Amino acid sequence: MLSARDLAPGLQRGWDDGSAVARLREELPGVVLEEDDFRRERTVVVRSESLADVLTFLRDDPDCAFDYLTDVTAVHWPAREQPFDVVYMLYSFSRNARLRVRAALGPEPKVPTAVPLWPAADWLERECFDMFGIVFEGHPDLRRILMTPDYDAHPLRKDFPLKC
Amino acid sequence: MSEMLQAGPRVERDGDRVVINMGPSHPSTHGVLRLVLEIDGEVVRSCTPEIGYLHRGFEKIAENKTWQQFVTWTDRMDYLAPLSNNVAYVMAVEKLLDLEVPPRCRCLRVICCELARISAHLLWLGTAALDLGAATVFFYTFQQRELLYDLYEQLTGARLTTSFVRIGGMARDIPDGWLENVGGFIDQVVPVIDEVEALLTRNRIWLDRTQNVGVLSKEDAIALGVSGPVLRASGVEWDVRKAQPYLDYDQYEFEIPYGTVGDVYDRYLVRIYEMRESAKIVRQAVDRIPDGPINADAPKIVLPPKQKVLTSMEDLIHHFIILTEGIQPPCGEVYHAIEGAKGELGFYIVSDGGPSAYRCRIRPAAFVNLAALEKMAIGQMIPDVVAIIGSLDPVMGEVDR
Prior knowledge:
The complex is a heterodimer of chains A (164) and B (401).
Chain A: H1 19-27, E1 32-36, E2 43-46, H2 51-60, E3 68-76, E4 84-92, E5 97-105, E6 110-112, H3 121-132, E7 135-137
Parallel strand pairs in A: 2-5, 6-7
Antiparallel strand pairs in A: 1-2, 3-4, 4-5
Chain B: H1 2-6, E1 11-14, E2 17-22, E3 34-40, E4 43-50, H2 58-62, H3 71-74, H4 82-97, H5 103-131, H6 135-156, E5 165-166, E6 169-170, H7 178-200, H8 204-210, H9 218-223, H10 229-233, H11 240-243, H12 264-288, H13 306-311, H14 313-324, E7 331-339, E8 344-352, E9 359-363, H15 365-370, H16 373-377, H17 382-392, H18 396-400
Antiparallel strand pairs in B: 1-2, 2-3, 3-4, 5-6, 7-8, 8-9
Helix pairs in contact in B: 4-5, 5-6, 5-12, 5-17, 6-7, 7-12, 12-17
């Protein structure tokens, strides 16, 4: 997947060089399923059962030090056996490196909350719940955030029509 | 009148605490933000923001429009800085395509982004000061924004919804005399910023209303994920333009202003200094903008000039395919962030190789910054909440999308 030359001039760099993923493989054997650096962006796909351990490790390990949660979001792949991807975008101030952590979830998606690790996850997880119906277990206030409270669908799922 | 009173209490009492509703159409909430405040006397004990009044489903729309069509929607996110939204989205698509745009285009994009930042900060300055009773400032800054809108109009043909940036370039080259006009604008806006600062920075009333109000510590700022001026005011010297440069920002000379206390006053000062730094960047860009093409040489991505479409068979074919089938990027996922006026504005795009995004996640800076409001408002007085909202500079178009 890696292009032969470096990225085109003017585009952004500053992603993890793979060292955090190597640490992850070393300390938590078996959790890493896949690793990718498409366009020099480091993505690590992990087992969803160990997501809480992975995120805690990535935040607390001094060689990883991902102290900043940029984003939490999801992607819906209805044809897959595990139709949801939950995606965490991490950043480390001390290493000036980003890392994307992804995990596949089943048709009734549930995942432990990241709010105790990064309070920033509060509204981001609420939006993800609102739009995709992913339940973040242990979230202090998992309510809809953009849609009305009585809304009965999750608009960013692929089976939600653009016109009603 | 009596029916209105029966329609439901606007004030609920719970012992000594009173729950009041602020917004969504309240002049100090800068759009349609609603807060549910629980107060004890005049002290805020809890603050629950309710958002979503301006939700238009942009991320869903992005999955149903071609790559290029979605640019028009980005205007309507942070509508105070539409040009930098255009740039943020288009650069994410260009990263997916691994497409290099010419140096002239990169330089023009820098000018656009920095003018957008000045425009957004001027609006923030006028309205945030107006909220606290300093009405004069509003007229100074809005007069300057009017001049900026004239510049936008000369360049893009539109004052607000610019939609000027194209994948692989710009809609057209710079019109004659525009760069001189930009230089002239910068020369006269900097003294106005100084003048406004003279009205506020050492003003006794302004200091009383802003200092030590809504303090956000460095640790809290990082934990809450805030970015942009809010993060910097809390003492984190971090700016996407410096930490992870794009568009050749590493070749411009500018400083990152940052605060020490993290109160409303620091956020005010950071934005004032940022406008001066943006003016510095614009001056450098205007001086050094290179000649050459404005669009990338990528016939399968960039539309050919109209004249060529009418005269050359090959260009006609490319034109037809781009407009009917759209461009065909590779499969993959990318994230590209810029330092927008509110903070880190990022686009996370998943492509399945089709003519539109499979998933287009907008990482909204204003949304994440607004989430920090609760932390800052608790323990403050009601009028301080007005000052804190102003200092967070939320724009509901970006918060709700």
